Amino acid sequence: MDWSFGLTMTAAGMAVTFITLYLLTLLIRLLNKLFPFKNEEEKKSKT
Amino acid sequence: MDVFIDALNSLGQGFLNLTWQSGIMISIGCLLLYLGIGRKIEPLLLIPIGFGVVLGNLPLANLAAQDEGGVINLLYNTGILTEIFPVLLFVGLGAMIDFGPLLANPIVLIFGAAGQFGIFITLLLALGLGFAKQEAVSIAVIGACDGPTAIYVASKFARDLLPAVSIAAYSYMALVPIIQPPIMRAMTTKKERAILMPPGEKHVSQRVKILFPIIAGILTILIAPMGAPLMGMLMLGNLLKESGVVSRLVDVSENTIANTVTLLLGLCIGASMLGGNFLKWDTILVFLLGFIAIFMDTVTGMLLGKLIKVISKGKINPLLGAAGTSAFPMSARVVQKEGQKANPRSFLLWHAIGANAGGQIGSVMAASVMLAVMSGLGIGPLGG
Fold this sequence. Notes:
heterodimer; A: 47 residues; mainly alpha; 89% helix; rod-shaped; B: 384 residues; 2 domains; 21 helices
């Protein structure tokens, strides 16, 4: 069995998946801060 | 008279060329048809696959995916070997998926990562059992709980295993409501399962819904470019839906494209399941490893669920961890059902859909990383 291949794939796969999804959670938080729902509602009610 | 007998002889050639392997495969095809029609288990897939198995194994019909020049061979070469079918399915999937619950409660996205751990445990097991690296990667990706991703990876690296991998992936996706509940109950106390989470749906700005598929698509593809066809099409489908200005394209993506591709994909996969390449020990191992992959996805998802329950001081129900697989929306429904069994006032569906959407992104990301590592190590298709 090629342990180095298996362990490299496991370490890289889990680490990159976790980090990417964590970055996406930060991205979503940022987007929600920049464009909160309330602002849109207020705009609609003004128009 | 001789001419008449010769003509009759050629008519009977099909019967004369039947082998025991093709007989067994035709029976398997009929069993899949029964499960699809009689038991209504994934009928959209099992009917085309089952009929494809029957057609592909009829001798001299020239309808096996491997029969050069045949109609199904043409579809197989054009749609599966080029990876067009699974990629197109992702446009439909993106148009169907609602990232709203995920955008409103982004922490559940992390469950989508934990729900992929089974992939890598299975990879190590497959390597340990002596499978080649390309085969091990193709088998492991069954743990993505995502048929198109499994087909995409297997068609890239181990085409001989493609029929077994795709059937296993779709079968286990259908069996999620049976596989997951016992694990969920074994890993949690009734008190944990009964944790109430606020049922109210938080609203998300439409701008966020539109920007998310664009920015997330760019970011994830920059991180793992090898998975660009999958992630790109998933995000395209979702952008079409959220843009709100191309309802005709959304309709085509989630209905016409998804249904047509599912039909042709199922037919081609079924017609590639020939006795010679399917009735072997490796197929049983693929199914066994696929089960382990999905089992471990649920276990690791639940472990993270329990950890987040502790970190959140009991505010997050650990059952959500089981929705981190990308069996969308089956896992979310299972979480809702188990939560309500423990506490009739519980309503976890909205949160679970968010975790499940996270699982969809997580599975594509995990597959993309695997493709990137394979490419980085210079490992190409088996026999290629």
